[in-house]
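It would be a great kindness if you could assist me with a short task in structural biology. The matter concerns a single protein, recorded as an amino acid sequence and a row of backbone structure tokens. Could you please explain, in whatever detail you think fit, how the structure tokens follow from the sequence? Thank you for your consideration; the sequence and its tokens are set out here:
___
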Amino acid sequence: MSTTTNSLQTHQQTSRLDFLFEAGHTMFGQCPSLSRYYMNEFQNTLTEYELTAHKPIARLSCKSCGQINVPGLNHRIEIIHQQSRKQNKTKKIIQSKNTIKSTCLTCGNTSLYHGSNKKKMPKLIMQQEPVIAAAKPIVATPSTTSTSPSTGESLKKKKNKGKKNNLKALLNKQQKPGSSSSNGGGGLGDFLSSL
């Protein structure tokens, strides 16, 4: 009998929490004050049942007023950098710890959350030679060593060079004995009209 009562209570608790959470999010765009009320009731119900929400769900709304946090609209987030230096026997390690400061613009409540730790290596290690060496040395070819003003101009020069070569080929074709422009091979006039 007691197990069915406990499961019934658990089902009622979860259904109430689900309703409050969804109602708070549904009413956020239509009536923000009603949304705050539902989210505040959601938080009070959690404490009443002695339950804790996961971090992402707990951080969705303000702990004080229940306002759903939307950064830039009704919520401000700042990242505070703190540096600490630790020294081992051989090297110094600089650690940077970020703290997230969350401010509700409705009630002015601020919350601090732990951020991530970042280890920075000493500059001497970063200035040393790279660990992985290139397999083959890169040999510069003459085409890569020539300095061109820009890629647009180099493409234009290549295009003009191609047209010049086509013109030379047509002139050579016309100068050969037995070739005529009436054969349908195209002549200088056809080439110039294509420009």
In short: The radius of gyration is 37 Å. The chain has a mean pLDDT of 77.
